[in-house]
């Protein structure tokens, strides 16, 4: 399940954002830090920043809440890019940060499915892009099996290792 991130999530999320195995998988493209936090104060400050961005209509960060423990185990950030791309439409950018013990194809596929059910309509996007570095094998498998395809070249995004899914592809699956 996911919900808007809360300051009360700081202790739970610190476990994710201080996880040495998770940190390399975080997408910090165009961000002002690498999301490597070691103190509750750093995590709390970041959450306040995320909430300020949400209030200012920059982007939204949701906490991913584990069913069994009711703990925040990661976050999903989402925003729609301002410009439409010919042949694709309006693109949403998805950042998915997850504690390493849950970084497996099954959990990731479940999260992606949950996101895809609502985000196209909520954010009025035609396609979504997300990053998965080459060593993130479980994430890449989840993306490919969910209908994402690797973006070749940099026509859609100026960074490497991005994957795209369109609403049309989801409706065909």
TrEMBL record:
InterPro entries for the chain: Acyl_CoA_acyltransferase
Name of the protein in its database record: N-acetyltransferase domain-containing protein
